[in-house]
Amino acid sequence: MNDILPEQTPVWQFVESTVRKVLAQYGYQEIRMPIVEQTDLFKRSIGEVTDIVEKEMYTFEDRNGDSLTLRPEGTAGCVRAAEEHGLLFNQTRRLWYTGPMFRHERPQKGRYRQFHQIGVECFGMAGPDIDAELLILTARLWKELGLEGHTRLEINSIGTSEARRAYREALVDYLEQDKAGLDADSQRRLQTNPLRILDSKNPSTRKILEGAPSLDDYLDDESRIHFDRLRELLDAAGINYTVNPALVRGLDYYGKTVFEWITDSLGAQGTVCAGGRYDGLVEQLGGKPTCAVGFAMGVERLILLLETLEVIPDHVNNNADVYVTAMGESAMAPAFALAESLRSALVDRVVVSHCGGGSFKSQMKKADRSAARYAVILGENELANGTVGLKPLRADEPQREVLQSELASVLSEAFKH
Ligand code: ATP
Ligand code: MG
């Protein structure tokens, strides 16, 4: 679990504000859920025989003896909240949330025990149009973040649960013949969650999988039509993708469309966004049958990618724009008044007031360290004359005398260049 330090928060804010802006543009509404839910909610939604429920959840008993769990993902809580507050009945919803998630995994680059997701969930829309919208939206997001061309989209259809059941049987029959050649994890999954064997990375298992039956051959007509139409919509929108028949996703609640946005720049932890359709989940959790589709993005991985590619925009930093100094006790109150007037006039600029006293030299040193472009110097002489000293800190230009009444407009002009 990581501390996110002041040097890192600007890039977090950049990602969060960009996502917020793009989602707002598409009419998505934010929902905020608790970080803790009843353990049972996750067991029933994610599935008993998934990695998350089997070995990754932070589960504890509270003082009432209830079993609670720190949320390992957001979909279950979002469905619970939406259902509980009547957001789903007879209506469509486009929701999003962001926040920490918790999984007890082996920590490594791009994989942490507390990590952050931005999740999007849409309810009440059955067709491939909303699937396509989610992918068009994410493509825009990559562009806005400067990641265009650095992520690729893989999609698949895993059909209805009946289609998957038939396929599962065929797959198990096939793999049983070569059981000894499978890795230990896959052998175990043969009984519990055989579809997950499809995305095994083990070379010997991969070799066996080459001859395995394909899920595609078991797809039901409805899922096939849905998938074909989705592909047409993506083609028309100019979204590139590849169909990956081995893409199954690890959570039980998915059906029909599944997708992942992957980067090749982060090694094994390359999935930055993953999701799909989960039409059965709301009913499974006790609600009325409600179509749903959504995705989750891993914020740490997105940030790692921005850093690796060195595409973080210059304006994303902690730098001050103006640093206002006050030389001597008598300059303190007027310096605050001046700084306030600058904040009113230059609303997008960071105006830092020097606090803590000190010599001219030490105040100028702090001004320099703030990375401000200008220091405003207010001492006894300037007070007497109604002026300030305006010192450019990043350019080889001399300090000049500016009337206090003109300072805001002088700075505003200066920041245009
Ligand atoms: P993986 O196959 O990498 O374990 P997953 O299928 O468990 O991923 P999801 O539950 O679909 O992942 O979560 C969606 C996204 O959240 C992932 O694609 C990834 O970007 C991010 N994510 C998942 N687990 C972690 C983690 N432990 N640390 C950081 N990011 C994570
Ligand atoms: Mg995982």
Please give a handful of descriptors for the protein shown.
single chain; binds adenosine-5'-triphosphate; Rossmann fold; alpha+beta; binds magnesium ion; Histidine--tRNA ligase; 417 residues; HisRS/HisZ; eight-stranded mixed beta sheet; BirA Bifunctional Protein, domain 2; 15 helices
Strand residue content:
15-25%
How does the major sheet shape up?
8 strands, mixed
- Gyration radius, to the nearest Å? 28 Å
Helix/strand-derived class? alpha+beta
Text of the CATH class of the largest domain? Alpha Beta
Mean pLDDT, rounded to whole units?
95
End-to-end separation: 42 Å
CATH superfamily of the largest domain: Bira Bifunctional Protein, Domain 2
DSSP summary: helix tally: 15
Q: Enumerate the distinct ligands.
A: adenosine-5'-triphosphate, magnesium ion
Tell me what you see in this structure.
The chain has 417 residues and is an alpha+beta fold. It has 2 domains: 9-160 and 220-309, Bira Bifunctional Protein, Domain 2 (BirA Bifunctional Protein, domain 2, 2-Layer Sandwich), CATH 3.30.930; 322-412, Rossmann fold (3-Layer(aba) Sandwich), CATH 3.40.50. Helix content is 39%, strand content 20%. The protein has 15 helices and 16 strands. It has helices at residues 9-25, 39-46, 51-56, 75-84, 128-145, 161-177, 184-192, 203-209, 221-236, 281-284, 299-309, 329-345, 360-369, 380-385, 407-414; strands at residues 29-30, 36-38, 58-61, 67-70, 93-102, 114-123, 152-157, 242-243, 255-262, 271-277, 292-298, 322-324, 351-353, 374-377, 387-392, 400-403. The strands form 3 sheets. Strands 1-5-6-11-10-9-7-8 form an 8-stranded mixed beta sheet. It has a 5-stranded mixed beta sheet with strand order 13-12-14-15-16, with helices on both faces. Strand 3 and strand 4 (67-70) form a beta hairpin. Helix 5 (128-145) packs parallel to helix 9. It starts with 8 loop residues before the first helix and ends with a helix. The model has no long low-confidence stretch (mean pLDDT 95). Bound molecules: adenosine-5'-triphosphate and magnesium ion. It is an enzyme of class 6 (ligase). One of its GO terms (cellular component) is cytoplasm. It catalyses: tRNA(His) + L-histidine + ATP = L-histidyl-tRNA(His) + AMP + diphosphate + H(+). Its EC number is 6.1.1.21. Its main location: cytoplasm.
